[in-house]
Amino acid sequence: MPTIHPKDENPYILDAESAAEMTRLLQQDQLLTKGMGALLPAQIDPAQIHDVLDIGCGPGGWVRDVAFTYPEMEVTGFDLASRTVEYAQAMAKTQRLDNAHYVVMDALKPLGFPDNSFDFVNGRFLFGFMSKTTWPQLVKECIRILRPGGFLRLTEAEVPMGTSLAAEKLYHKLAEAMSKGGRTFSPDGRLVGVIPVIGALLREAGFQQVQHTAHILECSAGQEAWHSFYQDFKIGVALGEPFLLKAGVISKEEYDAAYQQALADILSDDFCGIWLYASVVGQKPAG
Q: Which end of the chain has less Cβ packing within 10 Å, N or C?
């Protein structure tokens, strides 16, 4: 397997091996899948898919969901965090999902799979560890390991929007900190800016039939996703505090005040918010 990064060089902006982050990611998996309406994109005929790969699988929720729903498929997930992969393997064993597999691997290095290994490659919310320079490399690796006619789907998000000034301030500070490290495509550093460029990245790598599907998750007070969004913010932004402070985009005092205010705002009965994300699907030429 490719050599993983030392702990102090981990490219992920949060502590990926913390129990809190694993809990957040498992909940986020369910939230995203429900918002997308299905585990697989509409372009795919499940009967034509046998080998599936999930990039940056985290605690492996999506892999297990696909393995359970489609027992005829062999589903592999990989992640850089070894503790997270161990958890995912244990859960698959507990659920007796012999067709769910996990390995430790670095998405920022050449992938340890032979050419033409998979029928479908999936990646969701990879912006947490990717950069402007590594995105093209990963997409090229994806087309290499896909079989002719295989599909790649990348699902990425923009920072949420809502009526909490404090929450938006922290989200934009996260984007600013990521921008300082060359992790975003936003021209002014206030957004992640990955969604507009994914289609071009896929076409440049040689994918065809590139299609975009937009998703809007309403997280306003009283709506189904409200509580899940609150938990995602509460855990994710708390775990992002060291990243923000190290980047120098906010002081400890300013962060604490904004964080506490944002929690109160999101829990208020008049909070309104949406989370925009999009899936981009491309097909490797069959010839």
A: C
Q: How far is the CA of 25 from the CAs of 173, 178, 243, 267, in angstroms? A: 21, 20, 18, 21
Give 217: exposed, middle or buried? Use CB within 10 Å, 0-12, 13-18, 19+: buried
* Helix intervals (H) in the chain: 19-36, 61-69, 82-94, 134-145, 165-180, 195-205, 226-239, 241-247, 252-267
Asked whether residue 1 carries a pLDDT value surpassing 90, the answer given is no
Domain boundaries, the chain: 7-158+186-218+277-283
DSSP 8-state symbol, 8: G
Any idea which architecture 7-158+186-218+277-283 has in CATH?
A: 3-Layer(aba) Sandwich (3.40)
DSSP annotation of 2 reads P
- Mean pLDDT taken over the chain: 93
CA 62 from centre of chain: 11
CA distance linking residue 97 with residue 114, whole number of Å: 24
Query: What is the C-alpha separation between 56 and 128, in angstroms, rounded?
Result: 10
Angle at alpha carbon of residue 67, lines to 66 and 72, rounded to 5°: 110
C-alpha dihedral sign at 133, 134, 139, 144: positive
118, two tokens? 């998979």
Helix axis angle, 252-267 relative to 226-239, nearest 10°?
A: 170
Number of H helices and number of E strands within the chain? 9, 8
Residue 8: pLDDT band with limits 50, 70, 90:
very low
What residues form DSSP beta bridges with 276?
A: 216
Q: What is the mean pLDDT of residues 150-166?
A: 97
Would you call 159 helix, strand, or coil by DSSP? coil
Number of residues that make up the chain = 287
Q: What global pTM score does this model have?
A: 0.92
